[in-house]
Amino acid sequence: MMDSRDCASAQARIRDEAAAWFTRLQEPELSSEQQLQFQQWLAEDPQHRYEFQLLEALWAATDLVPRARLQALCDAPAKARRRPLLRVALAAGVAALAVGLGLFSGLNQPVSYSAEFATALGERRHVALPDGSQIDLNSRSHLQVRYARNQRLIELVEGEALFSVEHDTDRPFVVAAGVGKVTVTGTRFDVRRDAQQTRVAVEQGRVKVQGRDAAADDFITLTPGQGTHVDEHGKVAAAYAVDPEALTAWRSGKQVFNDARLADVVAEVSRYREQPLRLASAAVGELRLTSVFKSDDTQALLKALPSILPVEVRTHADGSQEIFSR
């Protein structure tokens, strides 16, 4: 998983490349080969296009600045080691002029951005968004990102994600997950979308949770250490205490269960298996379990389970496994 320093380094590299391309495109003539290389660079990563469009937006906001001034800023030798200086000169020059003209809205209201991210079985992924917000995706998760000037919208299609949201009062960060919706301006929270409900847990800040089609004033507010869930009909449960650290242990490859129903344990473990686990009866699912296991070794949990609870695990001919009482 990419740590914060790696993310910052990657973002700085992309900004350097965007500045370099922006400079080249100011030249009167660009060869067809260079045009092709530019288009390939744009297509490599959604953040490439975002950073380039941000420079374009700033430049458009300062259209009173002579082109010769920009060229003077960008005449440094085109060596890789000078690109950070190029970016600083370009950004500083354009931004300073924008501030002087009162046209600095380009940074406060970034251009639109859209992207899609997904994880496979057993995969976790860290995503850094253009505004500084970050997302950690759990196994078998899928989300879509759409930024506009007045809103940052995330559609959690399936699975689970931990959001660390950069504060922006003017552009709320909205996570739509099934029949539930979470709205914040800046905080850290976890959202999990299952077939029957959407669960929300807050680690830092405050979030507003409501049914997706609820009225604007129909919501509950969660603070750190609180959670809720939205049922399949869009009804939001009252806030209750949660352990965010345990709920987000999946980020370090762990599954933490504290007096959890075996039915919930089975549902969680199944997210990390090719074939889901099954329970022989509803009564078995009501047994309670407290333990910690590695999410990438679900067989270890099944092997230990009979020594913890009065159950046995049977493997069927098709390779699926089922838990029975004994």
Can you give a write-up of this model?
This protein is α+β, with helices and mostly antiparallel strands. It has 3 domains: 105 residues, no CATH class; 132 residues, Jelly Rolls (Sandwich), CATH 2.60.120; 73 residues, Phage tail protein beta-alpha-beta fold (3-Layer(bab) Sandwich), CATH 3.55.50.30. 33% of the residues lie in helices and 31% in strands. The chain contains 10 helices and 18 strands. The strands form 3 sheets. Strands 1, 2, 3, 4, 5, 6, 7, 8, 9, 10, 11, 12 and 13 form a 13-stranded mixed beta sheet that branches. The protein has a 3-stranded mixed beta sheet with strand order 15-18-17. It has a two-stranded antiparallel ribbon with strand order 14-16. Helix 1 packs across helix 5 and helix 2 packs across helix 3. The two termini are 41 Å apart. About 10% of the residues have low confidence.
Sum up the structure in keywords:
Phage tail protein beta-alpha-beta fold, 13-stranded mixed sheet, alpha+beta, 326 residues, Jelly Rolls, globular
State the helicity in percent bands: 25-40%
Radius of gyration: 25 Å
Oligomer: single chain
User: What is the correct CATH architecture of the largest domain?
Assistant: Sandwich
Shape: globular
CATH fold group of the largest domain:
Jelly Rolls
- Low-confidence stretches are 61-66, 76-88, 95-109
Give a quick account of the main beta sheet: strands, pairing sense, barrel closure: 13 strands, mixed
